[in-house]
Amino acid sequence: MTVKIGNINVGSFPLLLAPMEDVSDPPFRALCKEYGADVMYTEFISSEGLIRHAQKSTIKLDIYDHERPIGIQIFGNNIDSMKQATEICEKSKPEIIDINYGCPVKKVANKGAGAGILQDIPKMVKMTKEIVKSTNIPVTVKTRLGWDDSTKYIVEVAERLQDVGIKAISIHGRTRKQMYKGEADWQLIGEVKNNPKMHIPVFGNGDVDSPEKAILMKNRYGVDGVMIGRAAIGYPWIFNEIKHFMKTGHHLPKPSIKERVLVCKQHLKHSIKWKGLTLGIAEMKRHYNNYFKGIPNFKKYKMTLVTSNNAEEIEETLNIIYKEFKSYSFEKTALLK
User: pLDDT over 70 for what percent of the chain?
Assistant: First the structure.
């Protein structure tokens, strides 16, 4: 059965790349698309930044045809600003407008934006309704189970958001108070999906870091697809690995050191091209560990990769990693997990 967000066909069990600040940029999205992601989201964009034409915000509106379908994700706590930001986003012609009701970081949540709005559900519903009314583009929501353990109202909240017109919902299986600690609670996500009043796609998010977990979420909780965040950082191959396992019941071979080095170099090159030398190098640093996870004695190479501000030195270090470990088998690492 095909899953649709509005009229957009996103496949039978879509794999979504989560919107992650300083991660889900065009260079990384291009790799994730190449390696099997079905739906992309931009990094989250401040509505206040957009309406004030702040460069840090407007540059995140850069989207490309090879990424489609793609959603632009916005956040804020002022309804008028969010509506204006939606109007600005429309000019980039995304397939989806996504509202961030899930970001847990203090500088966002403490201002009543992101997961902060989970403390004011009536405002959350009102804001969503106004944004839906202001655009013809399908609106989706990404959120959490609640603010804390005593406010896990997600079953009711999802239904109310559906009633004001959203076309899909992605739910991270943690509260705001949990941040990213502990295990994601998929039971409640399943309750949202299995609520007989729900008829829009429900996507699960949180701790999906293997093909087995993706299948578990599909079979046990019935979600329409999964959104993958941290497990994709420095490892865009995870999308194809999940698809292959779901189709065949077998694991794809882990990417070789040669492929990892080539893809990492490609990622670095495009990151510098898109963000400039300084920022392009800085924002690659969070990816290196996952590109080469499992390599023995990797620490000395990692130190060079994450401390160097010289693109040539980084590339040379990647060449050394290839020479040193070209016969290394990542299958051993996978078995040890």
Answer: 98
